[in-house]
């Protein structure tokens, strides 16, 4: 049984603390992504409950005529604002530490390993419950996508897509990029990684 997952990073968000919306440039990115996905036989759209993901998913929903479902398992491992009075510098330092040491449990949110396992478990659950040949759009966050990939694939498999994937992971998934994953017979295959062709 084959399931295709389209992992979409949310569009460009406002650079401030908390659960922020998209910028005007982000709205253009989301619309370009939606127009591209209108040509794909999408069967389901699931989004992180954070506004930047919901806003992005709303554009895709309009073009594909598919209702968006929210799921908290698609949240980032941590969001700036989750820890009261945390500065952006403190948040970045915490983020970088969790990236370098996937087992490190930060004072708020999940470790990178926990986040990767959370998405893996969610995708496997979907693959086992949705009809065969489903095309499921997952609108989520760059960090969660890389946490999943680093947790699921070997370094050798990942280096096919970038020669220094693990060290560079935080810079590899641009806004509104699409990573296409195939799940078949219990195995994941990366069909395409962080494609932004549709934004050009």
Order of helices and strands: EHEHEHHEHHHEE
Number of domains: 1
E-strand count = 6
- What is the strand content? 15-25%
The computed structural class is: alpha/beta
Separation of the first and last Cα atoms: 33 Å
The CATH superfamily name is Phosphoglycerate mutase-like
Largest sheet: 6 strands, mixed
Q: What is the CATH architecture assignment?
A: 3-Layer(aba) Sandwich
Helix content: 25-40%
Summarize the structure.
This protein is an alpha/beta fold. It has 7 helices and 6 strands; from the N terminus they run βαβαβααβαααββ.
Describe the fold and architecture.
This protein has seven helices and six strands. The mean pLDDT is 97. It has a single domain (2-199), classed as Rossmann fold (3-Layer(aba) Sandwich). By secondary structure, it is of the alpha/beta class. It has a six-stranded mixed beta sheet.
């Amino acid at each position: 049984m084959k399931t295709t997952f389209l992992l979409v990073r949310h569009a460009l968000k406002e650079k401030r603390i908390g659960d922020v919306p998209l910028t005007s440039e982000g709205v253009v990115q989301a619309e370009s992504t939606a127009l591209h996905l209108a040509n794909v036989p999408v069967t389901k759209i699931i989004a992180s409950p954070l506004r930047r993901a919901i806003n992005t998913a709303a554009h895709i929903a309009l073009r594909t005529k598919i209702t968006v479902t929210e799921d908290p398992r698609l949240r980032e491992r941590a969001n700036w604002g989750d820890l009261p009075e945390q500065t952006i510098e403190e948040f970045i330092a915490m983020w970088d530490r969790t990236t370098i040491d996937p087992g490190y449990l930060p004072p708020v949110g999940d470790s990178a390993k926990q986040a990767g396992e959370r998405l893996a478990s969610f995708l496997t659950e979907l693959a086992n419950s949705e009809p065969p040949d489903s095309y499921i759009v997952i609108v989520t966050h760059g960090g969660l996508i890389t946490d999943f990939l680093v947790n699921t694939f070997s370094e050798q498999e990942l280096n096919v897509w970038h020669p220094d994937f693990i060290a560079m992971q935080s810079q590899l998934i641009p806004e509104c990029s699409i990573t296409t994953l195939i799940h078949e017979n219990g195995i994941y295959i990366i069909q395409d990684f962080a494609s932004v062709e549709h934004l050009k």
